User: What shape does this take?
Amino acid sequence: MATLPMANGAWAANGAYAVDSADISEVGSCKLESWISTATNTDFSLVANPSCVADVGRPVEFSMLGNRSRSDGEWSTTFQPKAKTNLVPTGVGKFGFAMYAGASFDALTGDNLTTFAVVPATYRLSETMRINLNGGWLWDRTVDRHYLLYGIGWDWKFTEVLQLTIEAFGQAGRSDTPSVTSASVTWPRFQTGVRYRPNEIFSVDLIYGRNITGENANWITLGTTIRFPPPESRPARERTGHL
Assistant: This one.
């Protein structure tokens, strides 16, 4: 699937969502995000994304996403290591900033497929509502093309256990060929979904997407996140006061 690092990859910004926030988890915490996505054109993706936050002079979230996917009837497996750090903390009425970088590799050949770097910015409108803006760069090494990555997302925690997300994202640049199919690589993509989070440990997402990998199809995604907080850590909502 696409990513906010899109070409030949899969996203892992916030579970199966593409647009990332400027926040990272607490040092010593880990989580396992996984999701399954299917499209109306029979494309398919199965993703697992474990991550942990370590202090290496500053808190850094390290992740290793694995993606087994089918596109146009062909199967592939890719891995995407990524590192993310917060630069400016988020807060109500102000922008917070982070940065992440990584690459994707073909699991069979070991070829480096893409390299990317992204700056997520988050503006909190309230304790239960935020806007996320993403901008970055992607080098698709399979066709030697450079793209500008962009994304905007809106999160709203409208009950104690339910959160709504709406996002649009894409990559701007020159397509491989002038054909309609290749040009669709740069068409905007869209997702909206609801997250059910009954406690601090577990959440589940149900997401509808359009044109997710540039193929002009409709997608349905079911995802889960299992969190492993540090020992004796207070719940995230108690530490930060916001979603």
About this structure: Residues 236-240 form the longest helix (5 residues). The first strand starts at residue 30 and ends at 39.
